[in-house]
Amino acid sequence: HRDIKPENIMIERGSGRVMVTDFGIARDSRATGMTAEGMILGSVHYMAPERVAGGDCDGRADLYSLGVVAYQLLSGHLPFDAPQASAVLVMQATRPPPPLAERAPTVPAALAAVVDRCLRKDPAQRYPNGEALAEALDEALREAESGPQAVPERVLDEPTAKAVWLRAAQLQADAARQVRERSAQAEEFATGMHSAQPTSGYRRSDVEAAAVEAGIAEEFVQLALAELPDDESELPAKYEVDSSRLQRIMLGQVPNSIRVSRVIDASPVAVLESIGQTLPSSSWGLTFEDTIGGHPLDGGILTFTVPPFTLGDYLESAPGHELRRQLTEWKATQLRIALHAVDGASHKCEMVVTVDIRGGMRRNTMVGSIFSALIGASFAAAGLVVAVHGGVAPAATTLFGVIPFGALGGLGFGGLRFGVRWHLRKTNDVLLRMIDAVGANARGRKLFGSLLANSSG
Length: 457
What we know:
With 457 residues, the protein is an alpha+beta fold. Helices cover 53% and strands 11% of the residues. It has helices spanning 49-52, 59-75, 85-94, 100-103, 109-118, 130-146, 158-176, 179-192, 204-213, 218-226, 235-238, 245-251, 268-278, 319-329, 358-390, 394-456; strands at residues 9-11, 18-20, 155-156, 202-203, 257-264, 287-292, 301-305, 334-342, 345-356. The chain has a five-stranded antiparallel sheet with strand order 5-9-8-7-6, sandwiched between helices. The radius of gyration is 31 Å and the shape is elongated. 30% of the residues are buried.
């Protein structure tokens, strides 16, 4: 190949298959040279020493280049770097590379040894071919997964695993507005799995696989897992997932998450770049936190932190202040964004925003419960006073206490439900405006970027 480097290695979205591209300077080792004498083709940072020296080379030169790619991936550094290409060529030909363990101490020793062997100056000391390298990598990875340096996969106890399945199903159900049906299916699955033989825990990967096998979309599984707190002691308070009967009585059938989406007339790459420019800007003021489940262009989910709404925000009119106000009322501190390519339209991308509002729903339920209790206690006390001091019959006492309570209670419930649904609509609107701002930025970059390119040309 003669030009192995990150730019020429592609990963197929969906299948994860790795492909090497750009065979523009490849040559058949059995053929005569195709490069003019004194000329070197390729990328200096990834070039094998024998190619720098102009000697004979074979596939082991590609293994050297692949070793440089691995070195860079694992450490974040190139083995050799300098401002001038000629200086890099000299270092490639004369200096031994720094051991990978020095640049990346956390890399398993077996894996670091494989990479270091690929970077030997003498081709005879490298692996003889790609098959031998693949076998060495398999063995090193198996050792890393089972050795003392291996990072143990998080193990979830049975109630937490059930909570993940239920929450993932709930997120999917909210998206489809079928909370009750989906939650019942997920609960039947979660409570029935391993009921005959209790287990001490489930590996995270097993929880993911079981949820997907049960028909829950992987996106919602990743969202549910992302909501797990790092501290296991916070699980009962922070990871409650089941909608209580009291909440349904107080608020009716309402979702526990807000999910809005819009198709943007721009490629997924352009939308991702626009998100990085728009949301952290002063207009919206969001802080990027992390990605979940891989790169956003490969199905991963972006997580942004929402600053709390303060009294000072009333003095300004940026759209981000309205978003912070709405999410503060829902006791939501994060929003998560997924990007989906539109089938048959590579120039379009669906942007999906999800917000967990269970905290706000629990607070509204508590407010409704306290309100109902106060009304009931007030009218019961008033009825008792009338009955004792006024000599009113028990039936009249009942009418005096129950009828007003029922009327005011009905008004209270109606007002509470109306308020919750009104805030849901307001939050949906501001989230859609945020997506529209991302779309406008993406379209502007496409338009003005092309104008700048044409003018510079």
